[in-house]
Protein backbone atom coordinates (compact mmCIF):
# COMPACT_ATOMS: atom_id res chain seq x y z
CA UNK A 1 0.00 0.00 0.00
CA UNK A 2 1.45 3.42 -0.89
CA UNK A 3 2.09 5.93 1.85
CA UNK A 4 -0.25 8.90 2.22
CA UNK A 5 1.17 12.08 0.62
CA UNK A 6 0.59 13.80 3.96
CA UNK A 7 2.37 11.20 6.13
CA UNK A 8 4.69 12.98 8.54
CA UNK A 9 2.96 16.34 7.91
CA UNK A 10 0.94 18.30 10.46
CA UNK A 11 -2.08 18.27 8.13
CA UNK A 12 -2.33 14.51 8.76
CA UNK A 13 -3.30 15.22 12.38
CA UNK A 14 -6.78 16.13 13.70
CA UNK A 15 -5.73 19.71 14.56
CA UNK A 16 -8.02 22.74 14.40
CA UNK A 17 -7.87 24.62 11.05
CA UNK A 18 -6.65 27.76 12.87
CA UNK A 19 -3.68 25.86 14.35
CA UNK A 20 -2.84 24.27 10.98
CA UNK A 21 -2.98 27.64 9.22
CA UNK A 22 -0.70 29.17 11.84
CA UNK A 23 1.76 26.26 11.56
CA UNK A 24 1.86 26.82 7.82
CA UNK A 25 2.56 30.55 8.29
CA UNK A 26 5.39 29.68 10.73
CA UNK A 27 6.92 27.35 8.16
CA UNK A 28 6.12 24.19 10.16
CA UNK A 29 5.18 21.49 7.64
CA UNK A 30 6.92 18.18 8.33
CA UNK A 31 6.93 16.86 11.89
CA UNK A 32 10.12 16.02 13.76
CA UNK A 33 10.35 12.40 15.01
CA UNK A 34 9.25 13.34 18.55
CA UNK A 35 6.24 15.25 17.18
CA UNK A 36 5.22 12.40 14.86
CA UNK A 37 5.37 9.87 17.71
CA UNK A 38 3.93 11.87 20.62
CA UNK A 39 1.19 14.01 19.06
CA UNK A 40 -1.20 11.16 18.03
CA UNK A 41 -1.45 9.72 21.59
CA UNK A 42 -1.68 13.25 23.05
CA UNK A 43 -4.51 14.19 20.71
CA UNK A 44 -6.20 10.88 21.57
CA UNK A 45 -6.24 11.94 25.24
CA UNK A 46 -3.57 9.56 26.57
CA UNK A 47 -0.83 10.15 29.11
CA UNK A 48 2.59 10.25 27.42
CA UNK A 49 6.05 9.36 28.74
CA UNK A 50 8.58 10.67 26.21
CA UNK A 51 12.33 10.59 25.97
CA UNK A 52 13.48 13.67 24.07
CA UNK A 53 16.07 16.36 24.50
CA UNK A 54 16.18 20.13 23.96
CA UNK A 55 16.23 20.91 20.23
CA UNK A 56 14.06 17.92 19.24
CA UNK A 57 10.82 19.87 18.70
CA UNK A 58 9.20 18.60 21.91
CA UNK A 59 7.89 22.05 22.93
CA UNK A 60 5.83 22.35 19.76
CA UNK A 61 4.60 18.79 20.33
CA UNK A 62 3.17 19.31 23.80
CA UNK A 63 2.23 22.93 22.98
CA UNK A 64 0.02 21.82 20.09
CA UNK A 65 -1.40 18.96 22.14
CA UNK A 66 -2.29 21.32 24.97
CA UNK A 67 -3.76 24.05 22.75
CA UNK A 68 -5.91 21.46 20.96
CA UNK A 69 -7.60 20.65 24.26
CA UNK A 70 -8.25 24.25 25.42
CA UNK A 71 -11.75 25.55 25.94
CA UNK A 72 -10.80 29.14 25.07
CA UNK A 73 -14.06 30.64 26.35
CA UNK A 74 -13.35 29.22 29.85
CA UNK A 75 -10.92 31.63 31.52
CA UNK A 76 -9.46 29.05 33.91
CA UNK A 77 -6.01 27.45 34.08
CA UNK A 78 -6.35 24.38 31.85
CA UNK A 79 -2.68 23.73 31.01
CA UNK A 80 0.39 23.73 33.30
CA UNK A 81 3.98 23.22 32.14
CA UNK A 82 6.69 22.74 34.79
CA UNK A 83 10.30 23.46 33.74
CA UNK A 84 13.58 23.23 35.69
CA UNK A 85 14.82 26.77 34.94
CA UNK A 86 13.45 30.23 34.32
CA UNK A 87 15.22 30.35 30.92
CA UNK A 88 13.53 27.19 29.70
CA UNK A 89 10.16 28.38 31.06
CA UNK A 90 10.54 31.66 29.13
CA UNK A 91 11.40 29.75 25.93
CA UNK A 92 8.47 27.35 26.35
CA UNK A 93 5.98 30.16 27.08
CA UNK A 94 7.21 32.09 24.02
CA UNK A 95 6.79 29.04 21.79
CA UNK A 96 3.27 28.32 23.09
CA UNK A 97 2.28 31.96 22.48
CA UNK A 98 3.57 31.67 18.88
CA UNK A 99 1.61 28.47 18.33
CA UNK A 100 -1.53 30.03 19.87
CA UNK A 101 -1.53 33.32 17.98
CA UNK A 102 -4.34 32.22 15.62
CA UNK A 103 -6.60 31.31 18.56
CA UNK A 104 -8.71 34.10 20.11
CA UNK A 105 -7.42 35.60 23.38
CA UNK A 106 -5.34 32.70 24.70
CA UNK A 107 -3.41 33.91 27.75
CA UNK A 108 -0.11 32.24 28.66
CA UNK A 109 1.41 33.23 32.02
CA UNK A 110 4.93 32.51 33.33
CA UNK A 111 5.51 31.95 37.06
CA UNK A 112 9.21 31.60 37.85
CA UNK A 113 11.55 32.05 40.77
CA UNK A 114 14.08 34.86 40.40
CA UNK A 115 11.34 37.18 39.08
CA UNK A 116 9.39 39.71 41.20
CA UNK A 117 6.19 38.40 42.82
CA UNK A 118 4.15 41.59 42.33
CA UNK A 119 3.57 41.39 38.57
CA UNK A 120 2.85 37.65 38.88
CA UNK A 121 0.12 38.33 41.47
CA UNK A 122 -1.47 40.95 39.22
CA UNK A 123 -1.40 38.59 36.23
CA UNK A 124 -2.86 35.73 38.26
CA UNK A 125 -5.71 38.00 39.36
CA UNK A 126 -6.60 38.52 35.68
CA UNK A 127 -6.61 34.77 34.95
CA UNK A 128 -4.86 32.60 32.36
CA UNK A 129 -5.43 29.54 30.17
CA UNK A 130 -1.88 28.16 30.37
CA UNK A 131 0.72 28.57 33.12
CA UNK A 132 4.41 27.82 32.49
CA UNK A 133 6.68 27.92 35.52
CA UNK A 134 9.35 26.49 37.79
CA UNK A 135 8.16 24.03 40.47
CA UNK A 136 9.25 26.12 43.46
CA UNK A 137 7.38 29.28 42.42
CA UNK A 138 4.26 27.43 41.18
CA UNK A 139 4.08 25.50 44.46
CA UNK A 140 4.45 28.76 46.41
CA UNK A 141 1.51 30.36 44.57
CA UNK A 142 -0.58 27.22 45.16
CA UNK A 143 0.32 27.08 48.87
CA UNK A 144 -0.72 30.71 49.33
CA UNK A 145 -4.02 30.20 47.52
CA UNK A 146 -3.18 32.44 44.54
CA UNK A 147 -3.30 29.72 41.90
CA UNK A 148 -6.31 27.44 41.28
CA UNK A 149 -5.67 24.20 39.38
CA UNK A 150 -9.11 22.64 39.89
CA UNK A 151 -9.89 23.01 36.15
CA UNK A 152 -6.53 21.68 34.96
CA UNK A 153 -6.80 19.43 31.90
CA UNK A 154 -3.13 18.90 30.99
CA UNK A 155 0.05 18.77 33.10
CA UNK A 156 3.44 18.75 31.33
CA UNK A 157 6.67 17.90 33.16
CA UNK A 158 9.40 19.21 30.85
CA UNK A 159 13.00 18.07 31.47
CA UNK A 160 11.69 15.96 34.36
CA UNK A 161 15.08 14.35 35.03
CA UNK A 162 16.67 17.76 35.64
CA UNK A 163 13.86 18.89 37.92
CA UNK A 164 14.53 15.81 40.06
CA UNK A 165 18.28 16.46 39.93
CA UNK A 166 17.71 20.02 41.14
CA UNK A 167 15.74 18.85 44.19
CA UNK A 168 12.23 19.70 42.94
CA UNK A 169 10.61 16.32 43.65
CA UNK A 170 8.71 17.47 46.77
CA UNK A 171 7.43 20.60 45.01
CA UNK A 172 6.38 18.59 41.95
CA UNK A 173 4.45 16.10 44.05
CA UNK A 174 2.79 18.90 46.04
CA UNK A 175 1.64 20.48 42.76
CA UNK A 176 0.32 17.19 41.36
CA UNK A 177 -1.68 16.68 44.58
CA UNK A 178 -3.59 19.93 43.76
CA UNK A 179 -4.60 18.79 40.26
CA UNK A 180 -7.70 16.78 39.26
CA UNK A 181 -7.17 13.01 38.91
CA UNK A 182 -8.81 13.24 35.48
CA UNK A 183 -5.98 15.40 34.06
CA UNK A 184 -3.63 14.21 31.31
CA UNK A 185 0.08 14.02 32.24
CA UNK A 186 2.84 14.33 29.64
CA UNK A 187 6.34 13.75 30.95
CA UNK A 188 9.39 14.66 28.84
CA UNK A 189 12.89 13.70 29.89
CA UNK A 190 16.24 13.60 28.08
CA UNK A 191 17.27 10.58 30.15
CA UNK A 192 15.44 7.75 31.91
CA UNK A 193 17.11 7.70 35.31
CA UNK A 194 16.06 5.25 38.03
CA UNK A 195 14.31 8.13 39.80
CA UNK A 196 11.96 8.84 36.87
CA UNK A 197 10.09 5.55 36.63
CA UNK A 198 8.49 5.43 40.11
CA UNK A 199 7.38 9.06 39.77
CA UNK A 200 5.92 8.37 36.34
CA UNK A 201 4.07 5.35 37.69
CA UNK A 202 2.53 7.40 40.52
CA UNK A 203 1.52 10.33 38.31
CA UNK A 204 0.43 8.62 35.10
CA UNK A 205 -2.17 6.13 33.90
CA UNK A 206 -1.15 3.65 31.20
CA UNK A 207 1.12 6.13 29.41
CA UNK A 208 2.12 5.79 25.76
CA UNK A 209 5.92 5.49 25.81
CA UNK A 210 7.81 7.39 23.13
CA UNK A 211 11.59 7.37 22.59
CA UNK A 212 13.44 9.10 19.79
CA UNK A 213 16.89 7.75 19.00
CA UNK A 214 19.79 10.21 18.92
CA UNK A 215 20.31 11.35 15.35
CA UNK A 216 23.92 12.42 15.80
CA UNK A 217 26.57 10.30 14.14
CA UNK A 218 30.22 10.54 13.20
CA UNK A 219 29.35 12.81 10.27
CA UNK A 220 27.90 15.52 12.52
CA UNK A 221 29.87 15.11 15.76
CA UNK A 222 33.55 14.29 15.99
CA UNK A 223 33.96 12.71 19.41
CA UNK A 224 37.52 12.28 20.73
CA UNK A 225 39.12 11.29 24.03
CA UNK A 226 42.36 12.93 25.20
CA UNK A 227 44.48 11.41 27.94
CA UNK A 228 46.03 13.62 30.63
CA UNK A 229 48.86 12.42 32.85
CA UNK A 230 47.53 13.95 36.07
CA UNK A 231 45.36 16.76 37.48
CA UNK A 232 48.00 19.44 36.85
CA UNK A 233 47.93 18.58 33.13
CA UNK A 234 44.13 18.73 32.76
CA UNK A 235 43.88 22.51 32.41
CA UNK A 236 46.91 22.63 30.09
CA UNK A 237 45.17 20.04 27.89
CA UNK A 238 42.03 22.22 27.74
CA UNK A 239 44.13 25.25 26.71
CA UNK A 240 45.90 23.20 24.01
CA UNK A 241 42.58 22.08 22.51
CA UNK A 242 41.05 25.56 22.61
CA UNK A 243 44.09 27.21 21.02
CA UNK A 244 44.38 24.50 18.36
CA UNK A 245 40.70 24.30 17.32
CA UNK A 246 39.76 27.94 18.14
CA UNK A 247 35.95 27.36 18.29
CA UNK A 248 33.84 30.50 18.01
CA UNK A 249 31.39 29.17 20.59
CA UNK A 250 31.97 26.31 23.06
CA UNK A 251 30.85 24.93 26.42
CA UNK A 252 33.23 23.39 28.97
CA UNK A 253 31.30 21.02 31.24
CA UNK A 254 32.49 20.54 34.83
CA UNK A 255 31.03 18.25 37.48
CA UNK A 256 31.02 20.70 40.42
CA UNK A 257 30.26 24.39 41.01
CA UNK A 258 33.69 24.93 42.52
CA UNK A 259 35.50 23.47 39.52
CA UNK A 260 33.30 25.56 37.21
CA UNK A 261 34.40 28.77 38.98
CA UNK A 262 38.06 27.73 39.05
CA UNK A 263 38.24 26.72 35.37
CA UNK A 264 36.46 29.89 34.18
CA UNK A 265 38.78 32.08 36.28
CA UNK A 266 41.87 30.25 34.98
CA UNK A 267 40.71 30.62 31.36
CA UNK A 268 40.18 34.37 31.84
CA UNK A 269 43.63 34.66 33.43
CA UNK A 270 45.06 32.87 30.37
CA UNK A 271 43.48 35.52 28.13
CA UNK A 272 40.31 33.76 26.96
CA UNK A 273 36.81 35.24 27.09
CA UNK A 274 35.08 32.79 29.47
CA UNK A 275 32.02 32.93 31.73
CA UNK A 276 30.96 30.61 34.57
CA UNK A 277 27.39 29.29 34.86
CA UNK A 278 26.46 27.40 38.03
CA UNK A 279 23.74 27.18 40.65
CA UNK A 280 25.27 29.74 43.05
CA UNK A 281 24.71 32.66 40.67
CA UNK A 282 22.10 35.28 41.50
CA UNK A 283 19.35 35.42 38.86
CA UNK A 284 20.56 38.84 37.63
CA UNK A 285 24.09 37.50 37.09
CA UNK A 286 22.74 34.37 35.42
CA UNK A 287 20.65 36.47 33.01
CA UNK A 288 23.69 38.60 32.17
CA UNK A 289 25.92 35.55 31.61
CA UNK A 290 23.40 33.94 29.26
CA UNK A 291 22.91 37.15 27.29
CA UNK A 292 26.67 37.59 26.78
CA UNK A 293 27.18 34.00 25.65
CA UNK A 294 24.11 33.87 23.41
CA UNK A 295 25.05 37.09 21.60
CA UNK A 296 28.68 35.97 21.04
CA UNK A 297 30.29 38.50 23.39
CA UNK A 298 31.96 35.58 25.19
CA UNK A 299 33.46 32.57 23.40
CA UNK A 300 33.43 30.00 26.22
CA UNK A 301 30.77 29.05 28.77
CA UNK A 302 32.04 26.93 31.68
CA UNK A 303 29.02 25.23 33.22
CA UNK A 304 27.65 22.48 35.43
CA UNK A 305 25.11 20.14 33.83
CA UNK A 306 22.23 21.34 36.01
CA UNK A 307 22.91 25.03 35.34
CA UNK A 308 23.19 24.50 31.57
CA UNK A 309 20.05 22.39 31.32
CA UNK A 310 17.27 23.89 29.21
CA UNK A 311 19.51 26.38 27.41
CA UNK A 312 18.75 26.46 23.71
CA UNK A 313 22.25 27.32 22.51
CA UNK A 314 22.43 27.76 18.76
CA UNK A 315 25.44 26.90 16.61
CA UNK A 316 27.67 25.48 19.33
CA UNK A 317 30.96 24.53 17.67
CA UNK A 318 32.42 22.40 20.44
CA UNK A 319 31.81 20.74 23.79
CA UNK A 320 34.70 20.05 26.16
CA UNK A 321 34.13 17.55 28.95
CA UNK A 322 36.60 18.57 31.65
CA UNK A 323 35.69 15.23 33.22
CA UNK A 324 33.32 12.42 32.24
CA UNK A 325 29.87 13.18 33.68
CA UNK A 326 28.88 11.19 36.77
CA UNK A 327 25.72 10.04 35.01
CA UNK A 328 26.60 8.45 31.65
CA UNK A 329 23.28 9.44 30.04
CA UNK A 330 23.99 13.04 31.02
CA UNK A 331 27.40 12.70 29.33
CA UNK A 332 25.68 11.67 26.07
CA UNK A 333 23.29 14.60 26.45
CA UNK A 334 26.26 17.00 26.77
CA UNK A 335 27.71 15.75 23.50
CA UNK A 336 24.36 16.19 21.75
CA UNK A 337 24.52 19.95 22.35
CA UNK A 338 26.97 20.36 19.48
CA UNK A 339 26.42 19.39 15.86
CA UNK A 340 22.74 20.32 15.94
CA UNK A 341 20.46 21.25 13.07
CA UNK A 342 22.67 19.42 10.57
CA UNK A 343 25.84 21.37 11.36
CA UNK A 344 29.04 19.64 12.40
CA UNK A 345 30.41 19.79 15.93
CA UNK A 346 33.19 18.48 18.10
CA UNK A 347 33.16 16.82 21.53
CA UNK A 348 36.45 16.47 23.42
CA UNK A 349 36.68 14.50 26.68
CA UNK A 350 39.67 14.71 29.03
CA UNK A 351 40.50 11.50 30.91
CA UNK A 352 43.18 10.92 33.56
CA UNK A 353 44.64 7.49 34.30
CA UNK A 354 42.49 6.97 37.40
CA UNK A 355 39.34 7.59 35.30
CA UNK A 356 40.04 4.75 32.84
CA UNK A 357 37.30 2.61 34.42
CA UNK A 358 34.77 5.40 33.80
CA UNK A 359 35.88 5.62 30.18
CA UNK A 360 35.38 1.86 29.83
CA UNK A 361 31.89 2.18 31.35
CA UNK A 362 31.08 5.02 28.92
CA UNK A 363 32.25 2.98 25.92
CA UNK A 364 30.13 0.06 27.15
CA UNK A 365 27.13 2.37 27.60
CA UNK A 366 27.56 3.73 24.05
CA UNK A 367 28.11 0.23 22.65
CA UNK A 368 31.33 1.20 20.88
CA UNK A 369 34.91 2.13 21.77
CA UNK A 370 35.72 5.83 21.86
CA UNK A 371 38.50 7.05 19.63
CA UNK A 372 41.54 8.35 21.49
CA UNK A 373 43.60 11.12 19.93
CA UNK A 374 46.91 12.77 20.85
CA UNK A 375 46.82 16.28 22.30
CA UNK A 376 48.06 19.11 20.06
CA UNK A 377 51.76 19.96 20.33
CA UNK A 378 52.69 22.35 23.14
CA UNK A 379 53.91 24.99 20.68
CA UNK A 380 50.27 26.08 20.19
CA UNK A 381 50.49 27.59 23.69
CA UNK A 382 52.46 30.42 22.08
CA UNK A 383 49.37 31.45 20.06
CA UNK A 384 47.29 34.37 21.26
CA UNK A 385 43.86 33.42 22.69
CA UNK A 386 40.99 34.19 20.33
CA UNK A 387 38.53 37.00 21.02
CA UNK A 388 34.75 36.85 20.59
CA UNK A 389 33.22 38.51 17.53
CA UNK A 390 30.98 40.86 19.49
CA UNK A 391 30.91 43.02 22.58
CA UNK A 392 27.84 43.94 24.66
CA UNK A 393 26.52 47.34 25.69
CA UNK A 394 23.97 47.63 28.50
CA UNK A 395 21.28 50.31 28.74
CA UNK A 396 19.67 51.23 32.06
CA UNK A 397 16.21 51.13 30.53
CA UNK A 398 13.91 48.25 29.61
CA UNK A 399 10.30 47.18 29.18
CA UNK A 400 9.22 49.29 32.17
CA UNK A 401 10.47 52.35 30.29
CA UNK A 402 8.75 51.15 27.06
CA UNK A 403 12.11 50.49 25.35
CA UNK A 404 11.83 48.10 22.39
CA UNK A 405 14.56 46.37 20.34
CA UNK A 406 13.60 48.49 17.33
CA UNK A 407 14.26 51.71 19.29
CA UNK A 408 17.82 50.60 20.07
CA UNK A 409 18.49 49.41 16.52
CA UNK A 410 17.15 52.70 15.15
CA UNK A 411 19.34 54.78 17.46
CA UNK A 412 22.45 52.93 16.32
CA UNK A 413 21.74 52.67 12.59
CA UNK A 414 19.90 55.97 12.12
CA UNK A 415 21.53 58.85 13.96
CA UNK A 416 24.46 56.62 14.90
CA UNK A 417 25.23 55.74 11.29
CA UNK A 418 26.30 52.18 12.14
CA UNK A 419 25.70 49.47 9.53
CA UNK A 420 22.81 47.26 10.71
CA UNK A 421 24.87 44.16 9.83
CA UNK A 422 27.26 45.13 12.64
CA UNK A 423 24.52 45.07 15.28
CA UNK A 424 23.84 41.66 16.82
CA UNK A 425 21.23 40.35 19.21
CA UNK A 426 19.19 42.81 21.27
CA UNK A 427 17.63 41.61 24.53
CA UNK A 428 15.23 43.85 26.44
CA UNK A 429 14.50 42.90 30.07
CA UNK A 430 12.24 44.61 32.62
CA UNK A 431 14.62 47.42 33.61
CA UNK A 432 17.64 46.99 31.35
CA UNK A 433 18.53 46.14 27.76
CA UNK A 434 21.54 44.54 26.11
CA UNK A 435 22.79 45.01 22.55
CA UNK A 436 25.68 43.18 20.90
CA UNK A 437 27.81 45.09 18.39
CA UNK A 438 30.95 44.27 16.41
CA UNK A 439 33.99 44.99 18.53
CA UNK A 440 35.31 47.48 15.93
CA UNK A 441 32.28 49.77 16.29
CA UNK A 442 31.81 49.40 20.07
CA UNK A 443 33.17 52.86 20.94
CA UNK A 444 31.01 54.58 18.33
CA UNK A 445 27.92 52.63 19.39
CA UNK A 446 28.48 53.40 23.07
CA UNK A 447 28.94 57.10 22.39
CA UNK A 448 25.71 57.16 20.38
CA UNK A 449 23.70 55.46 23.12
CA UNK A 450 25.19 57.73 25.80
CA UNK A 451 24.51 60.98 23.94
CA UNK A 452 21.41 60.07 21.89
CA UNK A 453 17.85 59.60 23.07
CA UNK A 454 15.37 56.72 23.09
CA UNK A 455 11.66 57.48 23.45
CA UNK A 456 12.73 61.10 23.95
CA UNK A 457 14.73 60.14 27.05
CA UNK A 458 18.41 59.72 27.84
CA UNK A 459 19.58 56.42 29.33
CA UNK A 460 22.88 55.51 30.91
CA UNK A 461 24.88 53.04 28.80
CA UNK A 462 28.05 51.11 29.47
CA UNK A 463 30.15 48.37 27.97
CA UNK A 464 29.91 45.16 30.03
CA UNK A 465 32.11 42.76 28.07
CA UNK A 466 35.71 43.31 27.20
UniProtKB/TrEMBL annotation:
One of its GO terms (cellular component) is cytosol. It comes from the Bacteria. Residues 220-381 form the Helicase C-terminal domain. Gene3D superfamilies: 3.30.70.330, P-loop containing nucleotide triphosphate hydrolases (3.40.50.300). Residues 39-210 form the Helicase ATP-binding domain. This is ATP-dependent RNA helicase DbpA. The keyword Hydrolase applies. Residues 8-36 form the DEAD-box RNA helicase Q domain. NCBIfam families: PRK11776.1. Belongs to the DEAD box helicase family. A motif (Q motif) lies at residues 8-36. Keywords: ATP-binding, Helicase, Hydrolase, Nucleotide-binding. Pfam families: DbpA, DEAD, Helicase_C.
Amino acid sequence: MSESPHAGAFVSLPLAPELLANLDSLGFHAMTPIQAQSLPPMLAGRDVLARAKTGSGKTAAFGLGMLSRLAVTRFRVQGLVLCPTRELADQVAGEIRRLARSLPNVKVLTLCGGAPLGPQLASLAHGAHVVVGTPGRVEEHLRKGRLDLSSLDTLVLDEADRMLGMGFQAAMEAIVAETPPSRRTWLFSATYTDAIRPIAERMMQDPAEVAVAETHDETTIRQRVYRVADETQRFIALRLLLLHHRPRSSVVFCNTRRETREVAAALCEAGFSALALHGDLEQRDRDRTLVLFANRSASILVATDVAARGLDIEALDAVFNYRIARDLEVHVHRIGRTGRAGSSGMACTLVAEQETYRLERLAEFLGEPLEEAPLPAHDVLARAPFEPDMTTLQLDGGKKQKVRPGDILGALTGDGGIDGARVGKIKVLERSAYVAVDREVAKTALAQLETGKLKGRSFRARRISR
